[in-house]
Write a structure and sequence with these properties.
This protein is α/β, with parallel strands linked by helices. The chain has five helices and seven strands; from the N terminus they run E-H-E-H-E-H-E-E-E-E-H-H. A seven-stranded mixed beta sheet has the order 2-1-3-4-5-6-7. Helix 4 (174-180) packs across helix 5. Pfam families: Ham1p_like.
């Protein structure tokens, strides 16, 4: 069975991706935490550039097929911020809660019409043996809630309100999230492309 390394140290993300691809004939593994790999400098101007950079660098270092993603939250009122800087928004030392509280603070008092947002994810796969590079993008539209809610999910999920559910991303089940989330949609496209490329 062909091995694919998930180029992420985020355990939530690794489990989400492994679960999504469980029915494919690949052995998906997270990055070995014991490996002392240099950090990938995410200096791309787009999610796609950053995802490809991560996948290319790790594929070269490990001599393995690598799947990586770059994702973030884009808020209309903030001119698309935090965008590709979502993971580092407000500074490297802030935890998830501090980051989303910062967003809520910036939108304080704004009506729902000014709180539109989208989660965006681009997944990249780099196969150094077959010289294959594949990317897939997913997007999920929503609204920034006025206050956080929910224990599921991670990152900005507690403040990302889904009008069709009447719940935040952190209040729906993982199975439901996989169907409608930005990463779930990107993974669905990636699954189709993997089947086409490795049939």
């Amino acid at each position: 069975m062909e091995k694919i390394i998930i180029g992420s140290g985020n355990q939530h993300k690794i489990e989400e991706i492994k679960a999504f691809f469980a029915d494919l004939n690949f052995d998906f593994e997270g990055l070995d935490p014991e490996l002392d790999l240099p950090e990938v400098v995410e200096d791309g101007k787009t999610y796609r550039e950053n995802a490809l950079k991560k996948a290319r660098q790790r594929a070269e270092e490990l001599n393995q097929i690598v799947l990586a993603d770059d994702s973030g939250l884009s808020v209309d009122y903030l001119d698309g911020a935090p965008g590709i800087y979502s993971a580092r928004f407000g500074g490297e030392d802030l935890d998830d809660q501090q980051k989303y509280l910062k967003i809520l603070n910036l939108l304080k008092g704004q009506p729902e019409s000014k709180r539109k947002a989208a989660f965006i994810s681009v997944i990249a796969l780099v196969d150094p043996f077959r010289k294959i590079e594949i990317t897939a993008e997913g997007r999920c539209e929503g609204i920034i809630a006025e206050e956080p809610a929910g224990e599921n999910g991670f990152g900005y999920d507690p403040i990302f309100y889904l009008p069709e559910y009447g719940l935040t991303m952190a209040q729906i089940s993982q199975a439901e999230k996989n169907k409608i989330s930005h990463r779930g949609r990107a993974l669905k496209k990636m699954k189709t492309k993997l089947k086409e490329s490795y049939n």
